[in-house]
Amino acid sequence: MAQTLYALLLFLVLTPFSHGFAHAGDDLFQYSTIDALLAGLYDGDMSIKNLMTHGNFGLGTLNGLDGELVVLDGTPYHIRAGGKATVPPETAMVPFATVSCFEEDTILKLERTASLDALNTAVELGLPSKNIFYAIRIDGRFPFVKARAIPKQNPPYAPLHEVVKFQEVVQFSGEGTLIGYYSPPFVKGINVPGFHWHFITKDRTGGGHVLDCSLAPTTARMDALHSLTVSLPNSREFNALDLTHDASSALETVEKGTAQ
User: Are 174 and 142 in contact (CB under 8 A)?
Assistant: First the structure.
């Protein structure tokens, strides 16, 4: 069983559990930490089946850092290197993931957007607060999406900023969905401060971690999340990690998809 750490409890509104999920309402559930992933901990002890009890919307990766994970409308999708998306078995394991029960409470109108940086700026301007978490869903038409996934690695694992050089970048155009989270700056080391986006096509056959994109006018549906629950791996590997260093530079390399 994973050790559960109730970190950063920010309950502004107490919402009862619902929909049969272990954590619902305004809670963001996270397995492991981004710094552990950056350090090369690519094997976790949480299954897709267990993860899906905590939410119907989210993102992450699979053991061995095998591509990308998207959770949308209650269905998990495994996006392998090359961009192909399939539904993984319930027994598949994850080393890092964030999920929530998506219930929109804010709709933000978006004009035509030429880049991911422009999208981040537009969404950030529309956030009611920059001090809480948001799950963000954007359905629309995308002139282009530049996305990546990393092939499954073999142990001993290299740190993520080195492994990212093996990423496979693909480009999509057409209708699809951005699955994203905004996290406030104080989660540094735990999650990705700012925005983290994954993409999946409308027919749910392709996608990846978003490096850049453009989109036609549409809306962003946002769900404010006032609490964070972090479940830590119960393993000797996690316990032995040195997580005392500032990994901000490595995270920037990984998020932008550039190798050092």
Answer: yes
For residue 87 the two structure tokens come to: 């539904």
Please write the tens of the pLDDT for every residue from 11-65: 323 333 334 565 557 999 999 999 999 999 999 999 999 999 999 999 999 999 9
Instruction: Using a pLDDT cut of 90, give the percent of the chain over it.
Output: 88
Question: Given this model, what pLDDT does residue 14 score?
Answer: 30
What does the angle CA 230 – CA 9 – CA 209 come to, to the nearest 5 degrees?
A: 45
Which pLDDT score, from 0 to 100, does residue 21 have? Answer: 60
Q: What does the pLDDT read at residue 256?
A: 86
pLDDT in tens, 121-144: 999 999 999 999 999 999 999 999
Domain architecture of the chain: domains with CATH: 1-260 (3.30.1330.80)
Q: Largest alpha-carbon pair distance within the chain?
A: 49
Encoded amino acid at 172, one letter: F
Question: Residue written as tokens 């999650």?
Answer: 191
Helix (H, G, I), strand (E, B) or coil at 204: coil
Q: Please give the Cα distance from 21 to 56 (Å, whole number).
A: 9
Asked if 105 and 25 touch (Cβ cutoff 8 Å), the reply is no
Report how far residue 76's alpha carbon sits from residue 185's, in angstroms, rounded to the nearest whole number: 28
For residue 97, pLDDT over 70 is answered with yes
Supply the pTM of this predicted model: 0.90
3-state secondary structure 79-146: ECCCCEEECCCCCCEECEEEEECCCCCEEEEECCECCHHHHHHHHHHHCCCCCCEEEEEEEEEEEEEE
How many C-beta atoms surround the C-beta of residue 11 within 10 A?
11
Residues in the chain, how many?
A: 260
